Amino acid sequence: MGIRLFGPRVSLGITVAVAAAIATVSCAALPTPTEIPATPTIAAETLERELVKAEADLRIRLSLPRDMPSNARLARVFVVNTQPPTVDLEFAVGPARFLLRQRPAQTAPGFPAEAVDVDLDGGPAKLLVKNDASGRPLPTELYWTRDNMDYLIAGAIPTDDLVRLARGVKRPGAT
Is 31 among the domain residues? Predict the structure, then answer.
């Protein structure tokens, strides 16, 4: 299932077989990515400016993954909504891509009801594994709330790599 980002697979206690049995259902409350398109190479300085601009325009501090492979790079910054302020950060790790969506925590975040409950460092999270109409796997999605932010991390990469990336997402100044 996807390209390995972190080397050998290590069990993180998630029952992927249960998640794989979930049917494809869309979630209207929080838009979910169905595909992560290829993004042209953008200069690191431009991306840094876009990141700073998004934070200033939306008046939020963005969270970044702290535990990433050495060849990972920020590939795109995209403001999805202004109310609530929602930002997508797309990362490239070699040929693999993953998306980190974040916004201030909502009372009813609208995480997919069909997602499987999983534990993310003692906090609740929702894992969604689904297929398209022809049975091909779509990017895996992991939803959680931490540090007063709602997050979605998604990509066509192994579930345990998504979980590892999610564990490393922290708000600036959080421990």
Answer: no
